[in-house]
């Protein structure tokens, strides 16, 4: 989704936001019919279409760091003629121009200067856009976010504290000479598991961060590090492999990603017997009314990719069930953007064809907030959500840990809930696949519970 363009001196910056991953990329019009893109996601279509509408040619694809949460689209844009600019220390296996601290790229009246800002990752560069000698914009990647900085714990536990200290030093030493009114355009933001303490703004200014962010306002480096490390939550396991994928380069698809093959019932059952995972992407209430036994519920929505990557092992063959109204291209693109490419196909005719064949379906109960929970309430939200309030008597287990810690879940009936219902149904389908019965999902989740003024526990 592209946002409102911002005129910055002789350039124009257009943000393109991936709401599901919580990330922003930026198309920058350079004022001479050319453009660059900062931290593009895998699908090149939004950038190419925007450039065509604005009568621009994309000449540079700029990377701030090796991304852990999505497949970079720089290689895709390079196939359409762009030069890839990236930190020299990223050691990309594909063609790129490697930059080090202080190096500049002439943009024809504008200049792009690399600024070493390690912390989120060791090789991290921010990029300062200069109009003449005047700083016009800072593309900060994960070095500065609204209200915080990107997490430093994605490389390994032994590097977490040193990188947290690098974050502080990058902000205070490398960015200290930049003006207060400088606009900051980060990659990670609200909803990103890469963020640490970031607020809900997408962009910011150095003045705002210097007054409000712990990154600048903490009482010294030690205080900042304690604050940052105490607030780190969990993150999807696919983060641990995508840096390597981006370093070596991913397969190129261009503007036409593959379409899902149409599978007969026999073909789907054969794939399932051979180890394929059946993922039902319909809304959770439809899944509850009837689904293929053993299917996993992950509703197709902006956050689909994050939960797919969290729950489903990489490399497993995937078979899908979707509603006719759901966008098959969106489904494929969400899989591809986190590197899930073993997409076998989808059931032709969907669940209707399965029912028409007289095959068995499984169901999961839906409970309303005006009813008492069935058995033990199971809260599968993130720890930060739980701490802000939960149903009295509930047991807490983050969705990402349900399979690993299933034995810790009390026996007997369960009413599973999350914020709205989608994550709870994913958990219910996982537990159903393990043989658990008497499962129910709270319709509307904790948000509906709170709105109904039902009792809430905290702490």
Give your account of this protein's structure.
- The structure is a single chain.
- By secondary structure, this protein is an alpha/beta fold.
- It folds into 3 domains: 6-248, 4-Layer Sandwich (Metallo-beta-lactamase, Chain A), CATH 3.60.15; 262-356, Oxidized Rhodanese, domain 1 (3-Layer(aba) Sandwich); 365-451, 3-Layer(aba) Sandwich (Oxidized Rhodanese, domain 1), CATH 3.40.250.10.
- Helix content is 28%, strand content 23%.
- The chain is built from 15 helices and 25 strands.
- A 7-stranded mixed sheet has the order 1-2-3-4-5-6-7. Strands 8-9-10-11-13-15 form a 6-stranded mixed sheet.
- Strand 9 and strand 10 (125-131) form a beta hairpin.
- Helix 3 (157-174) crosses helix 6 (221-230) and helix 10 (304-311) crosses helix 11 (328-337).
- The longest helix has 18 residues, at 157-174.
- The chain is globular.
Entry summary:
About 30% of the residues lie in helices and about 25% in strands. It is an alpha/beta fold and about 450 residues long. It folds into three domains: about 5-250, Metallo-beta-lactamase, Chain A (4-Layer Sandwich), CATH 3.60.15.10; about 260-355, 3-Layer(aba) Sandwich (Oxidized Rhodanese, domain 1), CATH 3.40.250; about 365-450, Rhodanese-like domain (Oxidized Rhodanese, domain 1, 3-Layer(aba) Sandwich), CATH 3.40.250.10.
């Amino acid at each position: 989704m592209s946002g409102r363009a911002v005129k910055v001196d002789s350039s124009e910056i257009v943000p393109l936001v991936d709401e599901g991953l919580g990330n922003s990329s930026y198309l920058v019009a350079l004022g001479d019919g050319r453009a660059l893109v900062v931290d593009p996601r895998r699908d090149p279509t939004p950038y190419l279409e925007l450039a065509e509408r604005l009568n621009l040619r994309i000449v540079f694809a700029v990377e701030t760091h090796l991304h852990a949460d999505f497949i970079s689209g720089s290689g895709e844009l390079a196939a359409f003629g762009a030069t890839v600019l990236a930190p020299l220390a990223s050691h990309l296996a594909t063609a790129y121009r490697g930059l080090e601290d202080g190096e500049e790229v002439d943009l024809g009246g504008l200049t792009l200067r690399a600024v070493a800002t390690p912390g989120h990752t060791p090789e991290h560069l921010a990029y300062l856009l200069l109009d003449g000698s005047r700083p016009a914009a800072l593309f900060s990647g994960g070095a500065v976010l609204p209200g915080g900085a990107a997490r430093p714990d994605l490389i390994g536990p032994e590097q977490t504290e040193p990188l947290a200290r690098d974050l502080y030093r990058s902000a205070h030493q490398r960015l200290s000479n930049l003006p207060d009114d400088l606009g900051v355009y980060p990659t990670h933001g609200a909803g990103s598991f890469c963020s640490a303490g970031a607020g809900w703004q997408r962009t910011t200014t150095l003045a705002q961060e210097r007054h409000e962010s712990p990154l600048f306002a903490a009482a010294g480096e030690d205080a900042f590090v304690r604050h940052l490390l105490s607030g780190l939550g969990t993150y999807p396991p696919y983060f641990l492999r995508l840096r390597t994928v981006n370093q070596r380069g991913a397969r190129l698809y261009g503007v036409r990603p593959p379409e899902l093959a149409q599978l007969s019932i026999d073909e789907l059952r054969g794939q399932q017997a051979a180890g394929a995972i059946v993922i039902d992407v319909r809304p959770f209430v439809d899944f509850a009314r009837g689904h293929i036994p053993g299917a996993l519920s992950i509703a197709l929505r902006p956050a689909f990719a994050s939960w797919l990557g969290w729950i489903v092992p990489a490399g497993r063959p995937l078979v899908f069930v979707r509603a006719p109204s759901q966008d098959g291209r969106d489904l494929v693109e969400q899989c591809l953007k986190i590197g899930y490419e073993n997409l076998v196909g989808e059931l032709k005719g969907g669940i209707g064809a399965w029912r028409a064949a007289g095959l068995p379906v499984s169901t999961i109960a839906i409970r309303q907030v005006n009813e008492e929970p069935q058995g033990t309430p199971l809260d599968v939200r993130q720890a930060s959500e739980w701490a802000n309030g939960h149903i009295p008597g509930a047991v807490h287990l983050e969705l990402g840990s349900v399979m690993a810690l299933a034995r810790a879940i009390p026996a007997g009936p369960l009413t599973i809930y999350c914020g709205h219902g989608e994550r709870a149904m994913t958990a219910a389908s996982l537990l159903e696949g393990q043989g658990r019965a008497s499962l129910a999902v709270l319709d509307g989740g904790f948000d509906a519970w709170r709105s109904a003024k039902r009792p809430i526990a905290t702490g």
